[in-house]
Amino acid sequence: MSKEARFRRGVTTAVAAAAALTLITGCSSGAGSDASSSGGDVTIELAQWWEPELPDGALRTLMDTFESENPGIKVKLLSGPYASTKEQLFAGAAAGTMSDVVGLDGAWVSDFAKQGALADLSTLMKDAKYDDSELASTIKVDGKTQMIPVVNFVYPLFTNDDLLAKAGVTAPPSTRTEFETAAKAVTALGDNTSGWVLPLSSEAPNGIQNDVMSWVWSSGGTMLKDGKPDVTNDDVTGAVKYIKSLNDAGVIAPGSATMKEQDKVEEFTNGRVGMMIDSLSHIDLIRKSNPDLKFSISAIPAEDGFTGERGIPYASWGVGVSASSKHPAESWKLVQFLMNEKTNSELSTLANAFPGNTKSVPDFSSSDPLFKQAFDIYSKGKPANEFVGLPVAEQLMRLFDEQLQAILQGDESVDDGLKKAQDAWVGEF
């Protein structure tokens, strides 16, 4: 089986990661309800955080194409940063005011499904007589399809070339020892520079998935045993002890306890940190914000002496339809458009991602050269994200985050903190 096929098979069992921005109004249903009562165009809202991470105007151009192919349907884009999107989405889900079509982070899907906030896409596909054989994956909760991964991203190590060179580091680190050495060298430059940035905000705890557990997966480790919590094992314990050693050495950017993902990206983009673990989706955003920044990507460092396949963290931009939308059929047409072979190829190219349609192929010739490098990194490793598919995945991240912060602050030992995290996780399962 090819690496790409293995990736898609892995994603098939995953709850992919992507998020949604919701419009909170005084209405009791989705914003599509504001369509003209006189028989005019139907307006549906697509709420997501994708637009700021794509080239300027790219998503709007795709929506213009959709509108030209579907006369009578207009699309209003609601866009915002990941964290803001998340906060508004949860509020909208509780109030029943979600937008018609929503970008989704798979870590939230279980919660939304319990609230009945998402429509069953299986029913919408059946009503539309849609053939789902080209979809790389569909995410189900209690037998109902709640989300479709649109495009999939890997999370490599980003390094500031100029800072590392100034610190005497000639190549991106490949092992934990090399990473620690590079982080200390960059921090020693002074002028408020730090070696690594680690976002641990409990409001948006996906840093536990992307920036902490990635150290476990990169060395072939696991946080589960037979599908159940196992965060006291040697894999997780070793990674947490390593992160604590970096914290004790003062190489982590200050303010990590309250940082969110966008804060991490801003610190790197502004040239204040030497290294971060991040999504390929931010490449274009970094280039737009700081065109002069020279940076590279590489595989996340593994334990010294590790020779196996390195786990490559991944996440996805997923899509769903609000259960409160007054225009489910029109909303499904937009989802179908996003997942057709042509659109999905174009979107995956624009986003520096892997497509969610099995027949779609990214155009490496027109994409950022780092995308091809990322594909090479992926080809040498295996996709890894054990949070996908877990119930209350975000709550598990938050519970682990609480203990990790206590460990880093010196309030409890690594072993005691992980034991508390293990007990908390078992309680959630």
TrEMBL record:
InterPro entries: Bact_solute-bd_prot1, SBP. The keyword Chloroplast does not apply. Residues 1-30 form the signal peptide. Keywords: Signal. Gene3D superfamilies: Periplasmic binding protein-like II. This is Carbohydrate ABC transporter substrate-binding protein, CUT1 family. It comes from Agreia pratensis.
